[in-house]
Amino acid sequence: MTAFAPASGQTPPPDSVHPRESSPEAPTSISRLNETIRGFVSNWGSVWVEGEITAWNLRGGHVFGRLKDATGDALISFRLWSSTLQRLPDDLRVGNRVVACVKSDYFMKSGDFTFTVSAMRHTGLGDQLARLEQLRAQLRREGLFDESRKKRLPFLPHVIGLITGERSDAEKDVHRNAELRWPQVRFRTAHVAVQGERCVPETLAALATLDADPEVDVIVIARGGGDPQTLLGFSDERLLRAVAATSTPIVSAIGHENDHPLLDDVADLRASTPTDAAKKVVPDVAEQRALVQQLRARARTRLTQRIAHDVAQLEQLRTRPVLRAPEGMLVARSHELFALTSRGRDVVTRQVYEGERRVAQLQASLAALSPGATLARGYAIAHLEGGVIVREATQAPAGAAVVVTVAEGSFAARSDGPVAEADVS
């Protein structure tokens, strides 16, 4: 390229100066610099690289992501057009180790440098993802993911414990949406680092403090999503076991639907976003008021129906003859009682008469058979000593003492012995 030769005392136009020939007196333009960089970059052609996917964001059918080197010290950004995405495996996701054919691209207008992917395939899971899967399997075997051990959230918590980053969008989302649903909601917020080395120890300390607070009914751990590298703290085994051991229900609101740290599985409830957490932790006051009105209307209707039914039943009972003229039942019963009484009196009278007649007959029979009646006719009964009745003359020899009983008393006598029949006559 031929250098521009300015006239004496003149500054050449920036577009005419090649970047290699620029100087304070003859600077080149940004457009000329970017054009030169693009021409240089476009000569690189396509290269195959190996790395781990650390970001995979789908927008408008295209993918914008990042690849991390195995050493973890280098990253590149890439874009993947929808036409290319249709030819790739469907199971590509964050954490996969892949090889990709990339071509460098430099955008002159913005000065951004990126790579366009024309092919990509699996080479295996990343080391970090493999370790997380091993930990996931271990915790599942220990029962930390079981629904039976998860605690139920209170219907309306008195105080909500919130663990999140200071002045973060996640904190604003939780506060705003919770207060919109229930204006009187109260928070006790602990600010922590939500990524990096301080994330786990600060979250553990905040968790212990809020769990020990008797006023806190539920704890929300919130973050606004991110790639797996920044979310590693929320898959740390120390934090997971501490969450499982708390007595206060824990809600995990770490990221969006595509983000899935292990805290989501251990927590008592997973919320897809901080906004979703606010909706699940507190009820909607408008919905509750509508529900109360609905229940009151339902109760009023049921009560009105019950009263109307009972009134109809009462009217039906009142129209029955026994209630319309209750004295009629008493009159009928009094006539029946009078008839039964008369019948009873007649039966008793006949039985008494029959009894008296029977007694008279027995008395007559008894009088006829009584010894007294016999004695009254002039007969007597002779008794020896000891009360033996004299039935034969030989029982009373001469000189024997005899007691003679007549109709009116008894007297003593002494036997002269048996007498001949001729003498008696």
Automatic annotation (TrEMBL):
CDD domains: ExoVII_LU_OBF (cd04489). Heterooligomer composed of large and small subunits. InterPro entries: Exonuc_VII_L, Exonuc_VII_lsu_C, OB-fold_nuc-bd_dom. It holds the Pfam family tRNA_anti_2. Belongs to the XseA family. GO terms for cellular component: cytoplasm; exodeoxyribonuclease VII complex. It comes from Microbacterium lacticum. This is Exodeoxyribonuclease 7 large subunit. Its EC number is 3.1.11.6.
